[in-house]
Amino acid sequence: DGEEEEEEEEPPCPVLTRPGYYTEPPLAELARLPAAALAALPAFLVGRRGAGAIKWEGGGLDVRGLDLDRLVQIEDRAAAVYEGMEEVKPPVGQGLNRPALITLEGVLPPEGADPAKFAAKVEKRTRKMGAEFVDYDPARGIWQFRTPHFSRYGLADSDSEEDSEGEAATGPEAAAAAAPLGARLRAAAYLVLRPVKEDYLRRAQARTAGAGGAATTVALDNFLATRAEEEAARHAREDRRREDLARQA
Q: What is the pLDDT of residue 167?
């Protein structure tokens, strides 16, 4: 009897609590649907206001019990699903690991860049990611493309920074050397902080398993902010040294 009751229990609707995120259909509407409907949505969208959205189409979308807080990340000019979760990532075509339309906002050409050239760069980047280019509006900074399955898709800082001759920087090192302080912080995070963050978080979670999760998050944020400042200061010192050498030459 217990097994029958367990089978009859309706699974919960998806969970999404992070500020700025939303779904279509809305969570309130999904909460009223029966299990059979939650297991076969015709389309489903997760978005983040001011950042973008991911829309799955094609029908048969099973969203029962999905922890969208963990599964979906929509960030500054990037989107990812199941990132770092290979142990739970389903095969292609199942779960959320299936074709989707991604819309990213805030993908504006760098100051002084030619909009047409930057648009061509965005289209080239789309193909390089293995995605299908749909549209890019440089005036509004909206980029749309389709993906066959899920990894991380987006535009890195190095893709939008330009060197003194107007050509694209070739990597994060070039962006870090050429960018102003704010962009230099982002480049430093790209170069250094991500692996540090992952390692630190793993160790911190191991130490605080079951308790102190909030304190761990605060400590991690403080730690990363300090490292970012150190990286920015190092780049600034290197810039000054190069300028001194140029004056002495």
A: 40
